[in-house]
Write a structure and sequence with these properties.
single chain, 141 residues, alpha+beta, HIT family, subunit A, six-stranded antiparallel beta sheet, 3 helices
Amino acid sequence: MSEFRLHPQLAADCLVLGELSLCRVLLAKDGRYPWLILVPRRDGIREIHRLSEEDQQQLMRESCALARLMETELAADKLNVAALGNMVPQLHLHHVARFIGDDAWPGPIWGKHPSLPYPDPQAEAERWQQRLADLEGFSSH
């Protein structure tokens, strides 16, 4: 198996928060929405169904654990979970907490507004790392 490399666009658009058993956990650099991304550490995979069955199941476990955490921590009105990949071919799973009245509600967030940087990206990353510390298998960088 080749060494995993994060797609350059994801690296540019996100902060790495840490690792779960299968996935790298990223924070999107857009302060408009609480937005985390799971990236399975498997090179050359674009689609969930291309993962091994074991990895598919692990991705769903990690995604559900992250979704529960976001739901509990943020009390969002809706949690959007999506694997689009139209712009970035590397498989990645978006987890976006949505609130009635947010900048794009009720429509999708993609392409609606330019990114709004966090006032202190490192502090936001550290807050998420503290929250994620309770997830099984999470280790921060």
